[in-house]
Each structure stands twice: as C-alpha cells, then as structure tokens.
Amino acid sequence: MRMYDCIEKKKQGKALTTEEIRFMVKGFTDGVIPDYQMSAMLMAICFRGMDRRETVDLTLAMRDSGSVLDLSSIPGIKVDKHSTGGVGDKTSLVLTPIVAALGVPVAKMSGRGLGHTGGTIDKLECFPGFTTELSREKFMQNVTEIGVAIAGQTANLAPADKKLYALRDVTATVDEMSLIASSIMSKKLASGSDAIVLDVKTGNGAFMKKYEDSVALAKAMVSIGNLAGKRTAAVITDMDQPLGFAVGNSIEVIEAIDTLKGKGPKDLTEVVFALGAQMLQLAGKADGREEAEALMQSVIDDGSALEKLAQLVQAQGGDTSYVYDTSLFPGAAFTKEVRAETAGYVHRILAREVGSACMLLGGGRETKESSIDTSVGILLKKKNGDEVRQSDTLAVIYGNDADKTEQAARQVARAYEISAEKKECPPVVRAYISE
Ligand code: URA
Fold it and tell me: Can you give the pTM of this predicted structure?
C-alpha cells in the first residue's frame, strides 16, 4: 500500500477502505508517512469529505493509536461530557459535581484553553495546589471513592489525533466535519467512559457558526459514539454570546460556585440542566428530563453539589477554603467600565471578540506553553435582549496592565451589537440530538 495512491484516490472523491485508513493513521503516528503527504491528504478530505463509514474508521484508528482506559472495575455507568469549546463556558465545573452528587460516576478528561476559548483545567487550577496530572491509579481511585475525577489528557491518549491536530492547525484543515468529529470522538472513546454527552456550540463564538453545521456535527459524533458501543447524546447550545456573565479564570470559578448554590446566571443554569439531564438519563438515573432536573435541583438545594466540588478539589490537592470563601481568589489591579454609546437593545455580543479581549489581558494562551493570569477577566453586565440606555455599563474589565485594560475595554465595546429595536434572541438550548 502506498500513501501516494491513497491521496490520489481521495483527490478523485473516492472512499478510502478501512485498511487504507488504518495504514495512513499508523504510518503517520509512527513517523513513516511524512507531514507533506498527510497535509495533502487532509486537504483532499477538506474538499471531498468522508462518508459515515470512513469517519468511524478514522475515529477508531485514532482511538487505537494509543492506550484505551479501562474503567470497567469501577461500578456503575461512568459518564463523560465534552464541549466543542466556547467563551465563558464553565459548565463542567458546575455539572460534574451535580451529577457525581447524585451517585453517577464522572470520569472526565479535560483540556486547557487555547486561543479565544477557555479550558476547564485552567479554571480548576485557580484553586491553589489543584492538579489534573493524575496517575491512572489515582484517577480510578478518585472516581471510585468520591465519584468524580477530572484529569488532563495524557500523551498516550489518541496520540494520532494529537499529531494530526497540530498539522491541521497549520494547514488550514481544521474546519472539516469528519475531521472534527473523529478528532473529538477518538479522545472520548479512548478515555473509557460508558456514556458521553456532547455540548455542541453554535453561533459566532463557536467552531460551527451555522446551526445546520452544528446539528450535522452533533449527529456525526452521536452516531460514531453509539456505533463504538457508548451511549452518546448531544445538546446544541447557543454561543452567539458568552455563556453566563464571567469570562476569565477566577471569575468564572466564582460564577460556577454561585451556580452550584442556585444563584447562577439563567443561561448557564439552563445549559447545565440540559446537559446534566442527558447524563443522568444515559446513566439510567432518571427516566425523563423532568425527573432529572428535579434531582439536580435537589442537590443544589441541599448543598451536596457544592460539597462534592469541595471533595473534588481536596482529592486533587486543591485548597477547599476557596470553595467556601470566593473572596480569597486574588483580584486584578485595574478595573475599567465599558459604557454604551447608544441606547437600544443588545442584539449580539461577539463571543470571539470577548474571548480574545480576555486573552489580551493575559487570561488566555497563544500557544500551549504560554502561562496565564487567572485574576484578569471580563464581567458582562448586559446580555442579549437587555435594554440599554446611553452610558449604561455594558461590561467591567479586570486587568493587571493599565494599557491592556484600556485596549480590552475598546475591544469589548466593539463586541456589543446594539439595535434600536428589540430583536428575537435564539434560545440557549437549541436542540437535543440522540440516535
Ligand atoms: N476539538 C478537537 O479536539 N478537535 C477538533 O478537531 C476540533 C475541536
């Protein structure tokens, strides 16, 4: 078999066989197939696409390029959740303790933020001492004993995806549906949970800006998961504005803690309940959305969800006093209010612009190696549909550098689209996708 022939075949729009896909993934992971040939293949896939069978084959070949975690010794249906990435998305910090407090084991692999999107690991590391570098044994032990563990992805988890993703990033081949679906699902399948709930974002701050594309991506991933023997469901949620009010690391953790106390923003709470209801149903804990939501509300009301977050923080080396007293999180040196220049209604808040303003403040990273400032961020005061009067505060910027704080304020001002008329805003939870 020759990579040249595989590239030629895909260039002509023909489907690759299972053997050809395995050959290509193994050869590339082992360094036998060079980057230039794989780049040509990726571009051919971008133009010609892959059918459902090819996408499943690619996912499984990438899953099997490294080790696959075996969680079968932990009793119960283990659930995982994945978001396609957004701005202000602190859902995992709220959702995992709620679901775990209801007795459903959560074995979660998370990533760091990159570019304009934030990452769960960076947020959890706001608790001094918190680590997501858990050995396989410690990860399993925590899920068994307290019902929840959140780990970073180890190097040996779907290494083919890691290498391919780096190449896609520099060859303008990231945004092809079958490549995204196989990339995400290979990692989820390798992390060993029995059930997977996917939060597929849609809107200006999401990978998939068009609703139809988000639905197609969700359907592709749900079908791959189910074909691979995992109970999989997806929820399409809005990213036409940041989720919640807080964008930044510490301030998002504080908002997540407020939500665990039942005092969170409406949109964030809605997304948490939608995803949590799917997790509980896939785990066989609830029969329908209504029952699942009542269960979730009960662990918020009786404080056990917040208590579960404290257990998670403690089990992973973090200082739990921050869970109970959020004023301990260090604040930033400068604040700057962003004021409305015109009156009207907030029509849209460009999430990507807000995310990159946070990055400019030092709250996000340009490369995987950059360090971040957890105390900076942006607190939105007005969201889609809100009425604003001239000079009302739209947002507050928290920075540690005076110039950057000013620059971020100008960027956030540009992110707000104000219209004279109140326009219809899309619902936060757009659709449920299951097989
Ligand atoms: N996230 C991933 O892990 N892979 C993609 O291709 C896109 C988003």
Answer: 0.93
